[in-house]
Design goal:
- The chain is mainly α.
- The protein has 2 domains: 14-62, Orthogonal Bundle (Arc Repressor Mutant, subunit A); 70-205, Tetracycline Repressor, domain 2, CATH 1.10.357.10.
- Helix content is 70%, strand content 0%.
- The protein is built from 10 helices and no strands.
- Helix 1 (16-37) crosses helix 4 (65-90), helix 5 (94-111) packs across helix 6 (113-120) and helix 5 (94-111) runs parallel beside helix 9 (160-183).
- The longest helix has 26 residues, at 65-90.
- It is elongated, with a radius of gyration of 22 Å.
Amino acid sequence: MAEQKRPLRGRPQRTEQQISEMRAKISACALQLFQEEGFEAISMRRLAKEAGLTPMTLYKYFDSKVDILRSLWAEIFGELCVELEKIAAQEPDPRARIHAVSLRYVTYWQGNPEHYFMVFMSKGISQTDVRGFVEDNAALAWFDVLRDSLGAAMGGGVGLPLMRLKSELLLCILNGVAHNLITISSYPWSDTEDLVRTAIDGLLDG
């Protein structure tokens, strides 16, 4: 009689849903800690403790603390992208569209300053860490909305070099407006909509 094989011992393999849920739990815990104490101050060991995990278990879900931060960045920009796409789809006039999506880009950061600081001002982040995120095209879909809206407002006949230049300038302008409104909030700035509209009009007509 053939010997029956014994079932393999050990924990059952995790399902995709279980992995997703655990990553979400870890991300939520990391988000709170990063916002309260700063990215640089939190170690993987501390994060594992706060999430109720061992460090070894934590590394099964994220390769590093930077990997967790990039995941949070992707969530933030994903949320922003959905909002910008919705606004762009609802505004048929090209010039009004670029004004609307640009304004929402700035007011999103104004309304979520903790996200702004974590994305743009986290300490302990190297350019290599940022490059890994920027080179992920899917993570930068929000920029496509701004660029496409700007292109539509500028009309046809615009060469690629000029289009690229103005798209990059648009991003610099909007980030600059958001940065000043958030980090120097005690200054009596002009209305946010007026600042954005004047900047965009100058970019389009200049």
